[in-house]
Every structure is written in C-alpha cells, then in structure tokens.
Specification:
Largest sheet: 6 strands, parallel
Helix content: 25-40%
Strand order of the largest sheet: 3-2-1-4-5-6
CATH superfamily of the largest domain: NAD(P)-binding Rossmann-like Domain
Structural class: alpha/beta
Radius of gyration: 35 Å
Number of domains: 4
Strand content: 15-25%
Oligomer: single chain
CATH class of the largest domain: Alpha Beta
Shape: elongated
C-alpha cells in the first residue's frame, strides 16, 4: 500500500534546508537541460535551417549548462539563435557559481558537523543560563573558576557553536518553537535569564509552570520591568547597565562618592591629592625609599592607582609606575610642592559625558541629581545633548570645554570607538581624569593601555551582582575605595608613625597624629606616639582591618575637628 500523501509531506518537512536545496537542484538540472535541448532543436530547424536531432540537442544543452565547451556544433548566424545561445551560457554560469556555496557546501557541512544538543542534560547541581552575551561573560568565568557546573540555552546557532568550541555545555533551541526544551529544568540549582525583557518573562513563566522552585535571577533592560518580572516568578531582577552608569558617575564625582571616605576628619589644612606620574616625571620608576618624599616634601604616599586597581605603598621598596595615579596625603602647602614632580588631576569644573545611550543617560541623571554640572556630547541631536559632534574631533572637545573639566566619562556603546576616543582625549587633556565604559571585559586592559584612569564593563558589574547572589559572597564591590580612619594609639605607643613598619605590615599609612587640640602631619626623628594620641590611618577597607588587628587598636571618637598644624 503506498504511503499516504500527508505522511510524505511530513517526511519531507523534516529534511534540513540544505537537503531540500540539494533535492531542488537535482530535479531542476534535468528539467533545464531538457528545456534547453527542445528550444535548441526548434531554433536550429526554424531559424538556422540546419535541423538537429534530439540527442545532439541534448548534448549541446548539457555542454552549455556545464560550461564544458562545444565540439563541431558551434556556429550560428541568426540573431535570435545567437542571443538564445548567449542566454543559455549565462544560465550555465549562474548554476556553476551557485551550485557549490548554496547547495553542496551546506549539505556536506551539515552531514559532517556535530549537531548541537536540543534537550537539557541532567540539571541537578547545574546553573542554567538563558542567552549569552557580554553581561554574563564574567559570571561564566567565575562559575568555571569555582567549579560550578552550568548549561547555556542559546537560540543563535552561530553563537551556540562558538560557545561549544570554548568548551561550554550548550543547548540550542527557542522557547517559542520548542516548548519542551525546558524539560528537566526543575532540578537545576539556579536559573539566570539574560534575553530581552519579553523573552525573559516567557522563560520565567515556563520554568515556574514546569514546577521549578529555585531562584531565578533576571537581567532586565528597562528598570520599569523589574516589578512585573518579580510578580510572574523572578526571585530578583537587576539592570546592569544602570548599575554601571551609577558606578561611572560615582567615580567621576566626589559629591556622589568621595575619593577618600572620612577625609573631613583631617580638617581644612590637610588633604589628599591625586597626581598623574608621566613617563617624563622624576618620580617614574623610582622607589619610595630613594625619593624620600616624606623627609623632603612632608608628603605621605598612600599608594597608586594602576590599571584601575589601587596598590598600597608597602614600604621603601615600592616602585612608582609610569602612568600611575599617585595618592598623596599632607598639608596643602606640601602637596603643592609635589606638583613640581607630577601632574595634579583636576578636581574642579564640569563633568563631560560622551555618549547619551542607556548608560550615558544614567550617568548624567546621577551627576545632575548630585548637583554636578554635566556637559553631554553625542553624535545625534537631542534635547538633552549639549554638544552635537564626534568626540574624536578636537573641535567637539573644544566646544565641550574638556580641558576645563573635572572628569570625562566615555559612555560609548562601541569598544573600538571607546579605545580610540580614550587615546584622543588623553592626548588632548592629559590632566583630566578619564573614566570609560566597556562592553567586553577583555577590552578593559586595552582601555587602560590607551590612557583611561578607570574602566568598567557591564559584564564585570553583572558578574559581580550574580556571583554575589549565586556564590554567597559577602559584598558586591564594583571598585576599591580609600578610607581614612581615626584610631587610638594601641601598640604604636613609643613608636614613630613613619618608621614603625606600618606600610610593610599592613599596607596602610599614618598620615596625621592628633595630639591635644592639634593635628600634626610632619614628624621629626625624635617624635614618638603617646598613649593619648589619636592616629589618622589611610588605606583600603581590608588594609585598615589588618592595621586594627596588627596594632590592637579601635576606632576613636571625638566631638569636634581640631585645627591642623604642619
């Protein structure tokens, strides 16, 4: 009994596209050759008056279509016949050009390439990530580092194959066309969805409908969608682009986040300043022990920012890196003396924001809420854009008053443009702090090489947020911050603030000593810490904790700020 027609259609429908194309080719070639042979017979009889039989005509059509050439039958005089021959030759050339890339190559690629899995593996103890992009790249690397198994559900075939080539467990398919693709998801350790907001909502609902009871973390594009996603089943919803914008804004403005927390404790005559160490500076490449900045200038080096990371000064062997930003504490008069050796970073003026996309808008919003003056540059005209132009052009930078800015934030959406813009702005205004947004985490290093003082990617932000929730980290830190602590003397009693091995042991620095109603920032060789003294210690949160433990001290309290003495 012959198969039912519907059954035949179902079988054909299951063939891959390349197989269908090959079938079409195999059917069309004989038909084209046959049609060419019949037309050739008619033309030779009625136009050339030199009849050809069917087989001779068939041979001619095959030779022409395959571009293999002719034998003796290669002379025509009638214009219509000549045009027909030319047309058929062009048809043959078209077949020759298309047959391999369109028909044969895709067919053989599909026959020999490894097929991507279309079903989830056993999900017990695994994390399922729905859609891959730079936002989850840092998280994926962190999961690999700690040994947590994960599976990526990807609907883009090329992306899925790239991920498989990197050694990741990948499932290829779409939720709309393959609703059963989430079978077994209820055993997963956690779910992360990183598609567009509509697809995220579909994924969350489908997972809950299948009985999944664990945590679902979603990365949303629009903060207004956070609450609806939580209502349909998301455990937590984050907007990494907005967090990134907030981090960039806080780095640019001391009103949002002070450069050194607690600096007001030192009073008005003592400060902490940032200096850029140019390669031509006499500080570049020198050791602190050789420079003797404390003895010569009355200034204490707290540490240096190198490639966005703060490296505390750990002793006389610490070398100052060319291009680093040096953090120095001391009386303002002494800090002014350091300016002869390095370029001070500007602290006053407007903040220029280049790029007014999602991240740029968030940066501007936070800056203006904090009372900062923000000048916006964008290539596209908009009511919120102050300077319309290309940030790579000096005329645009002139219009935006970049040389008078207290900081420049590059919130460009393209990493290549960001790297080049960093180099241009750094050359144009070397004394202005430069903060850059990055898409791909591997490009962060390139931004620092180009001259950025601080660079942060959306992948770093999202990865830290997700790792905090998945791996139970104590805190989410986008960047390191310096802090000034006011502590009791502890076991420092009888020692010298600058010669007690504080740097080497704790990576902190004693920048001042409060004695009675005075704050002392310079100490002679005979100076000794007394039991009633209060010390001002500067460092990171981790190094200050180490100082407290090493010198058995606690935070000191006072009601008013005493006057500083140099």
């Amino acid at each position: 009994m012959p198969p039912h027609p519907n059954r035949r259609r179902q079988v054909v429908g299951h063939f891959k596209r390349s197989t269908k194309r090959l079938f079409i080719l195999l059917l069309s070639l004989p038909l084209v050759i046959l049609a060419g042979a019949l037309l050739y017979m008619s033309g030779m009889s009625y136009l050339e008056h030199s009849p050809r039989d069917f087989w001779t005509s068939l041979e001619w059509a095959a030779e022409t279509l395959t571009t293999t050439g002719y034998g003796s039958d290669s002379h025509w005089t009638h214009p219509a016949m000549i045009l027909f021959v030319i047309f058929f030759e062009l048809v043959g050339m078209s077949f020759y050009v298309l047959v391999f890339p369109v028909f044969f190559l895709p067919y053989f690629e599909e026959r020999f390439e490894v097929r991507l899995p279309a079903r989830l593996p056993a999900m017990a103890g695994r994390v399922l990530i729905h859609r891959y992009d730079p936002a989850v790249d840092s998280l994926v690397e962190e999961l690999r580092r700690v040994g947590t198994a994960f599976v990526i559900l990807e609907q883009d075939e090329r992306q899925a194959r790239r991920l498989r080539d990197r050694g990741y467990d990948v499932v290829f398919g779409t939720l709309d066309e393959q609703p059963g693709i989430l079978a077994g998801v209820e055993a997963a350790q956690a779910l992360i969805t990183n598609a567009d907001d509509h697809a995220d909502a579909t994924f969350i609902m489908m997972a809950r409908e299948r009985g999944y009871r664990g945590p679902i973390l979603a990365l949303a594009e629009n903060p207004l969608h956070r609450q609806p996603m939580e209502k349909i089943g998301a455990t937590a919803v984050f907007t990494p682009s907005h967090v990134l914008g907030a981090a960039l804004a806080s780095r640019a403005s001391s009103r949002i986040s002070p450069k050194v927390e607690g600096l007001q404790l030192l009073g008005e005559r003592v400060g902490i300043a940032d200096f850029r160490v140019q390669s031509s500076s006499p500080l570049a490449g020198k050791r602190l022990g050789d420079l003797r900045l404390r003895a010569r200038y009355g200034a204490t080096v707290i540490g240096q920012w190198i490639g966005g990371r703060f490296a505390p000064a750990e002793g006389p062997e610490t070398s100052i890196e060319p291009g680093a930003i040096l953090v120095v504490a001391g009386a303002h008069a002494n800090l002014a003396r350091v300016e002869r050796l390095a370029t001070p970073l500007r602290r006053h003026g407007p903040i220029v924001v280049a790029g007014h996309g999602i991240v740029g808008r968030k940066v501007v919003e936070m800056l203006r809420d904090a009372g900062e003056t923000a000048i916006v540059i964008d290539i596209r005209p908009d009511a919120a854009v102050d300077v319309v132009g290309n940030v790579l052009e000096h005329a645009t930078l002139d219009d935006a008053q970049v040389r008078k800015a207290s900081a420049v934030v590059l919130a460009l959406s393209n990493d290549s443009a960001g790297v080049f813009a960093t180099a241009v702005v750094r050359d144009y205004a070397p004394e202005v702090p430069l903060i850059a947004r990055v898409n791909l985490a591997p490009n962060v290093a390139r931004l620092y090489q180009a001259g950025a003082d601080f660079a942060l990617s959306v992948g770093q932000v999202a990865g830290q947020i997700l790792a905090h929730h998945l791996l139970g980290e104590d805190a989410v830190t986008v960047e390191q911050r310096l802090k000034l602590a006011r502590v009791a003397a502890g076991t420092m009693v009888g020692g010298h603030p600058w010669q007690a091995g504080v740097r080497e042991k704790t990576a902190t620095a004693v920048v001042a000593v409060e004695r009675g109603n005075e704050v002392l920032v310079e100490f002679d060789q005979a100076f000794q810490v007394q039991a009633d003294d209060v010390l001002f210690v500067c460092g990171t949160a981790a190094s200050l904790k180490k100082y407290m433990q090493e010198y058995r001290t606690t935070a000191a309290e006072r009601a008013t700020a005493p006057a500083a003495q140099s």
